[in-house]
Design goal:
The chain has 208 residues and is an alpha/beta fold. The chain has helices spanning 30-39, 50-57, 75-82, 95-106, 154-161, 174-179, 184-195, 203-207; strands spanning 2-6, 22-26, 44-46, 63-66, 110-116, 127-129, 132-136. It has one domain (2-207): Rossmann fold.
């Protein structure tokens, strides 16, 4: 498949996808894009604005994964802003819903949009898998994943996520980068659920 991986980060969702697909990764931070390229040298990595790239290139792909920035939707940020005064209140970044509606209305292939469970009731119904919500044009069967501590220090997060980024000079907090990674097991499960056809049930099986 021709796969578009938007807001790619260092590739948490992509880690267990293997190399059978033709993958294009979009990441707007050059140093993070370099880390992604280190781990996935066969992917086409482009430093660009993922939101605009989706609009300009969506017809070139068979499957699209999008993980728009989540802080403005997160319960933790709202709690620290309202309860502790650590952050200022912000408008939720509605690019999340723009992309869901855009893919619903215009894209002919398979797609998934991932984000945190928000502090408000989601405006569009989603599937909850693990710690995140997923919107898709395909039904994703529910599955439980073991909870992992995302408040760990960098060394522990590297072990949990399966990425050793200690050697890279990124200029961004590495623990934050690792926390932003989708769990690799969840990324593989979502891709497999969307791309593997459900078994056909025959009338004979129903009668049995």
């Amino acid at each position: 498949m021709r796969v578009l991986n938007l807001y790619a980060g260092i590739g948490g969702n992509r880690k267990l996808w293997g190399d059978e697909h033709q993958i294009t990764a979009i990441e707007n931070e050059p140093k993070i894009a370099e880390v992604y390229k280190h781990f996935f040298p066969n992917d086409n990595v482009i430093v660009a604005d993922a939101h605009q790239y989706l609009l300009d290139h969506y017809t070139e792909f068979d499957f699209i994964w999008s993980s728009p920035p989540c802080p403005s939707h997160s319960r933790i940020r709202k709690h620290t802003a309202v309860g502790r005064g650590q952050n200022k209140p912000v408008f939720p970044d509605m690019k999340l819903y723009e992309e869901i509606l855009f893919l619903q209305g215009y894209f002919k292939g398979d797609w998934v949009v991932e984000n945190v469970i928000p502090w408000y009731e989601p405006l569009i119904k989603a599937n909850k898998i693990g710690r995140h919500l997923f919107w898709s044009n395909k039904e994703i069967p529910d599955k439980k994943f073991s909870g992992k501590n995302h408040l760990d220090k960098q060394a522990d997060l590297q072990e949990v996520k399966g990425f050793d980024i200690s050697m890279f000079n990124i200029g961004i907090r590495k623990d934050k980068i690792l926390r932003n990674c989708v769990e690799p097991e969840v990324g593989k499960y979502i891709l497999d659920s969307i791309t593997t056809p459900l078994p056909t049930i025959t009338s004979r099986q129903v009668n049995l």
